[in-house]
Amino acid sequence: MVEWYKKRFSELTTDELYELLRLRSEIFVVEQDCVYQDLDIKDKRCIHLFGMENGEAVAGLRIIPAGISYDYPSIGRLVVKETHRHNGYARKMMLEAIGIIKEELPGEKIRISGQAYLKNFYEGLGFVPVTDIYLEDGIEHYGFELDISGKTGAHLGL
Predict the structure, then answer these.
(1) 80, containing H or E segment
(2) What is the C-alpha to C-alpha distance for residues 2 and 40, in angstroms, rounded to an integer?
(3) Cα–Cα distance between 34 and 138 in angstroms, integer?
(4) Surface-to-core class of residue 131, CB atoms within 10 Å of its CB (0-12 exposed, 13-18 middle, 19+ buried)
(5) What is d(CA 30, CA 151) in angstroms, rounded to the nearest whole number?
(6) Disulfide check for 129: which of 7, 59, 61, 142 has CB 3.0–4.6 Å away?
(7) DSSP 42-66
């Protein structure tokens, strides 16, 4: 059974941090065959949402405050272990992240950089493409935004 957590970087245990970074490497570097600098200084300023099962990270993302990646708060490094896909975890985490941003971080919009093949997924969450396709680390992406001005949202209980 997956247990869900919301933690700031300073609250992560070394095991949790290791598991999150291992999962991101497994998916983004090995599975997607993309060599890039995953360990950036942004993690230290983020809120991390993640799911653990039997001591292993199986899903995660990070919420990035405004002014770090974009002028607006952002969501990044969305990842679900291959064996745990098609269980709704990505959608659940994204909805939770949107709720956290609405409640805890200032901003009129949420800005993300999403892989092009996930365009329908992001649009299904209300995000709108605001750029043409561009290459980021050799993978096609869109810039997406979600207008959250004047809206409130509840957490899903992660």
Answers:
(1) strand 74-80
(2) 27
(3) 7
(4) exposed
(5) 38
(6) 142
(7) GGGGSEEEEEEETTEEEEEEEEE-T
Global confidence as pTM: 0.86
Which of 109, 127, 45, 122 lies closest to 71, judged by CA?
109
The rounded distance, in Å, linking the Cα atoms of 25 and 17 is: 12
Give the position of tokens 């405004």: 66
SS3 call for 105: coil
Do residues 58 and 84 make contact, with C-beta atoms less than 8 angstroms apart? Answer: yes
For 106, list phi and psi in degrees, rounded to 5: -70, 150
Walk along the chain (158 residues) and give the pLDDT tens digit of each residue.
Answer: 999 999 999 999 999 998 998 888 887 655 656 555 556 778 889 999 999 999 999 999 999 999 999 999 999 889 999 999 999 999 999 999 999 999 999 789 999 999 999 999 999 999 999 999 999 878 899 999 999 986 555 454 45
**Distance between CA 36 and CA 3 in Å, rounded?**
29
Task: Read off the amino acid at residue 70.
Answer: Y
